[in-house]
Amino acid sequence: MPELPEVETIVRELRPRVSGKTILSAGAHPSAKFASAAAAISAQILSVQRRGKYILFGLSQGREMIVHLGMTGRLQLNPAESEVDQYIRAWWQLDDARLELHDVRRFGRVAVVPTGNYTTLPTLSALGPEPLDPHFSAGTLWTATRTSRRAIKTQLLSQRVVAGIGNIYADEALWRAQIHPAARRITKAQAEALRNELVEVVETAIDHGGTTLRDYRTLGGTIGHNQHHLQCYGRAGQECLRCGGTLKRMVLDGRGTTFCASCQKR
DNA sequence: CGCAGCGCCTGAAGGC
DNA sequence: TGCCTTCAGGCGCTGC
């Protein structure tokens, strides 16, 4: 599932390949989640940015195209004449290539909006700070979490406290910070540790080109390598690399969650 | 306004 | 072998 590091990896590859190109034609799956891809026809791509897990294409004519990859989405650039496979949910014809959104489970989404107008994308409009932004401090994290009584992991996944964190990196950061995923309040010291570990986990994953468990691929179709560096996610039943206990699995607010009951105390 | 609950999707994996 | 069930989960929407 593409989270911030995976989306960042894709955007870094995508930016030099499509910036300045004009969208000559486009098409999409009839679902409302993808149909607006065609609204980008005739626009020039001026910029490619990332916010959280959202890819933002700055377009000419005062428009902006937002692409979210959902669970199984991939962006790929193929030769203009190549065959379109059944899982391509949206495509944009550039002068020399075709940009495609491949998304088996259709959890992804495409929206074309007036630049900066995110009223139809509530999560994006309420998105928290980027973890790698200097403004994301222990203080802002503590302030953002202290008023809510939801589980800390649920708050991380909400995208409002910090942007771009999904199930993998939430489990990793909480394990590293030794905070129980179901904790309903954290101390200032824990907020400090959590901020530092979120930054560490995200930076490390970007360095490794993202985590490929099944679906994630870079723009060029290669896999990431961060799956070899995960210390908690997906390791339930195996030994805790810190205390030697056994990592446990629980379902927290509907999400599979791996943690160490011995060294992640509430 | 916050948030719990639900629906969206389909391939893979496990049970019988 | 093949059918059926369960599971994975980010986000938008609805309603309290």
Strand and helix layout:
Elements: H1 4-18, E1 25-28, E2 45-51, E3 54-59, E4 63-68, E5 73-79, E6 88-93, E7 97-103, E8 109-114, H2 122-125, H3 138-146, H4 152-157, H5 167-177, H6 188-207, E9 248-252, E10 255-259
The structure holds a DNA duplex (16 and 16 nucleotides).
What does this structure look like?
By secondary structure, the chain is α+β, with helices and mostly antiparallel strands. 24% of the residues lie in helices and 22% in strands. It has helices spanning 4-18, 122-125, 138-146, 152-157, 167-177, 188-207, and strands at 25-28, 45-51, 54-59, 63-68, 73-79, 88-93, 97-103, 109-114, 248-252, 255-259. It has a four-stranded antiparallel sheet with strand order 1-6-7-5, with no helix packed on it. A four-stranded antiparallel sheet has the order 2-3-4-8, with helices on one face. β2 (45-51) and β3 form a beta hairpin. α1 packs across α6 (188-207) and α5 crosses α6 (188-207).
The arrangement of helices and strands along the chain is HEEEEEEEEHHHHHEE
Strand element count:
10
Proportion of helical residues = 10-25%
Number of helices: 6
Low-confidence stretches: none
Strand order of the largest sheet: 1-6-7-5
Query: What portion of residues belong to β-strands?
Result: 15-25%
Distance between the termini: 28 Å
Residue-averaged pLDDT? 95
Biggest beta-sheet profile: 4 strands, antiparallel
Q: What form results from the Cα inertia axes?
A: globular
Q: Structural class given helices, strands, pairing? A: alpha+beta
Kindly provide the radius of gyration, computed on alpha-carbon positions and rounded to a whole number of angstroms: 19 Å
